[in-house]
């Protein structure tokens, strides 16, 4: 071998080594890019699934759990789902993670309460599930936050009873539309039914607290709010909204002339919907407009079309408008004032204006052409007055103060009646008793009202069985 050929060979070896290194480095890069893409995909799934709304109690430690989820049966504490090995899901395998989400069974085999919306998540596709698992395990910082145990009253404290409930109501979902490239309407259905679990608030529940499939998205009570009918019905539902308006509402939390998002909807906007791609929000709009219409016979026109009926009292009678938009702490000092017009001018007019038409830019919205004020019951109007609205949307932050401590039930009823008559649905009357019930969290579900009787009936059945066994034994003894 000549020197030249040795040099040549060495050159080739070096070149080969260099190429291999470049290849390896780019492979590592490609792998890292693929991992990043997977984590980003998983994060998008977790956002669309709105996991943060329930699993975050303290914004500084996302997903660290501890938030009490109010259920009619008592508070259920959302788990720590950070990858903490001591307090979170750090020891969950992907199979266990999928079982918790799709079947409502945790890593110890314990049944979860359906406050965790696994009936909806049952339809999450394998691809989305895998990406979400990788996201939680690799990208969410572990937080060792111990969550208080959930203690529901007997008999709901027996978690195994959920197995019976699941046998009745847990259906394995479809995964149609799980890819962003699916047909728009399928994608919308997947986002609404599976990830967005919209029906968990918008569909009314039966005696056993399962969603009534015949009333799908037909409107329901949640924590004192009414999650309205969002079927395609043009009168009772949102058939009169365009898909673009629905998408804008989901993104920003408000649409002029239609309504604003308060309560649980404000949270869904803040934690989930405002981060979703416009194409997904549009797909939700398109799908909702295809949902079979549910009409409430007594509804005459869409809630957002109401604009009052009773003429306003002469403006001169109203107290002068305050220059700033904060509440005047003295306006309701005289607790005896239950004059709706006095209360409105003191507590509301600085923002919503004496005319009720809101400000020019509608940052303080009109109370006419406003779903909450035009609905056939005033629950959302009362809830907005009691608890205010504090919401971060894609476009801006909105804030309406809560009046629960400034106004008593009679005063809230008075101001609500003033608002309904002059700006909304004049046929709606709010009573003091109704405000008291809404303040206490809304009507008690039938299951809870029936529980004492159900327990008594169960006790009688047990006693009867014991008595029958005893009698059979006795008669056998007598015969022998
Ligand atoms: C509407 C509220 C709500 C939403 C939304 C929600 N969860 Fe939960 N989740 C809960 C509650 C409450 C529990 C505890 C239930 C119990 O104790 O029976 C829970 C339990 C869990 C558990 C079981 C952990 C354990 O070991 O205790 C996992 C895992 C979980 N959730 C993951 C998720 C993920 C991932 C998402 C989003 C895709 C999500 N959850 C969305 C309320 C929610
Ligand atoms: C935690 C409960 C909850 C969840 C989950 C929820 N909503 Fe809502 N939604 C509400 C409440 C409550 C309102 C009424 C808000 C108000 O008037 O201030 C509402 C209002 C709406 C409205 C406006 C209807 C109208 O006529 O004013 C639309 C549209 C809507 N929701 C769509 C959705 C979609 C789509 C999803 C799922 C991605 C969803 N919601 C999930 C509780 C919820
Ligand atoms: C400091 C200003 C401010 C005051 C005072 C105020 N509001 Fe509001 N109000 C707002 C803002 C901001 C919104 C939400 C706008 C949005 O979502 O885009 C709102 C929303 C509402 C809504 C719609 C709620 C829903 O869920 O759709 C109603 C109804 C309402 N206000 C009634 C009242 C009444 C009645 C009073 C007096 C008791 C009052 N507001 C006092 C600023 C105010």
From TrEMBL:
This is Mono/diheme cytochrome c family protein. Pfam families: Cytochrom_C. InterPro entries: Cyt_c-like_dom, Cyt_c-like_dom_sf, Cytochrome_c-type_DH, Membr-bd_ADH_cyt_c. It is found in: Cell membrane. Heme c 3 binds at residues 348, 351-352. It comes from the Bacteria. GO terms for cellular component: plasma membrane. One of its GO terms (molecular function) is oxidoreductase activity, acting on CH-OH group of donors. Its main location: membrane. The chain crosses the membrane at residues 12-30, 450-470. It comes from Luteibacter rhizovicinus. The keyword Secreted does not apply. PROSITE patterns: CYTC (PS51007). Residues 37-140, 183-292, 335-423 form the Cytochrome c domain. Signal peptide: none annotated.
């Amino acid at each position: 071998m000549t020197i030249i050929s040795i040099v040549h060979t060495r050159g080739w070896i070096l070149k080969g080594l260099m190429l291999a290194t470049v290849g390896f480095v780019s492979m590592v890069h490609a792998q890292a890019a693929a991992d990043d893409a997977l984590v980003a995909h998983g994060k998008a799934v977790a956002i669309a699934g709105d996991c943060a709304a329930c699993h975050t109690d303290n914004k500084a430690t996302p997903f660290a759990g501890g938030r009490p989820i109010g259920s009619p049966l008592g508070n259920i504490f959302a788990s720590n789902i950070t990858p903490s090995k001591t307090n979170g899901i750090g020891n969950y395998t992907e199979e266990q993670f999928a079982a918790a989400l799709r079947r409502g069974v945790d890593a110890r085999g314990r049944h979860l309460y359906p406050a965790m919306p696994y009936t909806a998540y049952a339809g999450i596709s394998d691809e989305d599930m895998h990406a979400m698992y990788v996201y939680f395990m690799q990208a969410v910082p572990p937080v060792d936050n111990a969550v208080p145990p959930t203690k529901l009253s007997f008999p709901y404290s027996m978690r195994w009873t959920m197995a019976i409930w699941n046998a009745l109501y847990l259906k394995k979902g479809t995964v149609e539309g799980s890819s962003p490239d699916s047909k728009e309407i399928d994608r919308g259905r997947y986002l609404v039914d599976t990830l967005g679990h919209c029906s968990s608030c918008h569909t009314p529940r039966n005696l056993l607290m399962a969603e009534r499939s015949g009333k799908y998205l037909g409107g329901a009570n949640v924590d004192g709010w009414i999650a309205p009918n969002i079927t395609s019905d043009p009168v009772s539902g949102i058939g009169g909204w365009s898909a673009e308006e629905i998408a804008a509402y989901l993104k920003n939390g408000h649409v002029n002339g239609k309504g604003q998002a308060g309560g649980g909807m404000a949270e869904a906007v803040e934690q989930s919907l405002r981060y979703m791609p416009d194409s997904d929000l549009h797909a939700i709009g398109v799908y909702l407009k295809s949902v079979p219409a549910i009409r409430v016979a007594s509804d005459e026109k869409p809630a957002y079309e109401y604009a009052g009926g009773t003429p306003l009292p002469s403006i001169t009678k109203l107290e002068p408008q305050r220059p700033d938009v904060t509440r005047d702490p003295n306006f309701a000092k005289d607790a005896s004032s239950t004059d709706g017009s006095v209360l409105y001018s003191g507590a509301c007019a600085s923002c919503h204006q004496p005319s009720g038409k809101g400000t020019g830019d509608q940052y303080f919205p009109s109370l006419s052409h406003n779903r909450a004020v035009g609905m056939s019951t005033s629950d959302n109007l009362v809830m907005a007055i009691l608890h205010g609205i504090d919401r971060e949307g894609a476009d801006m932050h909105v804030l309406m103060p809560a009046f629960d401590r400034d106004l008593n039930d009679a005063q809230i009823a008075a101001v609500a009646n003033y608002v309904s008559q002059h700006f909304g649905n004049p046929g709606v009357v709010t009573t003091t008793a109704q405000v008291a019930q809404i303040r206490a969290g809304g009507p008690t579900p039938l299951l809870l009202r029936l529980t004492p009787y159900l327990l008594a009936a169960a006790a009688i059945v047990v006693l009867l069985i014991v008595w029958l066994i005893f009698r059979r034994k006795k008669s056998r003894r007598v015969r022998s």
